[in-house]
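haha ok so turns out i had the wrong file open the whole time. this is the CORRECT one, sorry everyone. sequence first:
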Amino acid sequence: MQAMTTNLTEGEVARARAQLKVSLLMGMERPGTRAEQIAGQLFALGRVQSAAEIVAQLDVIDVAAVKAYAARVVEAGHPTIAAVGPVTKLEPHQIFARRFGSKFLADAAE
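then structure:
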């Protein structure tokens, strides 16, 4: 996450955006996945979004927006893990936190 605040390129964001679009559109072909999408949208938004609306929202995400989000996550402090179900195989918080960048290495050691 810390690296994304400075080292992110437009090409990386474009690839991620394309992957999200493909995943969205392919998911609409499976009834179970489509039902999950509809349920999630109804829960979060109170309505169902069209594929065109979602694609339009993805199209406005640029490098600056992703960098700003990554900076907000890094500045927030300790990353949080939430889990449901058997958690005996869940990795320790220190290992999880290390993947967020050097700022979290010192925090994770405490």
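The domain at 1-76 is CATH 3.30.830.10 (Cytochrome Bc1 Complex; Chain A, domain 1).
again sry for the mixup
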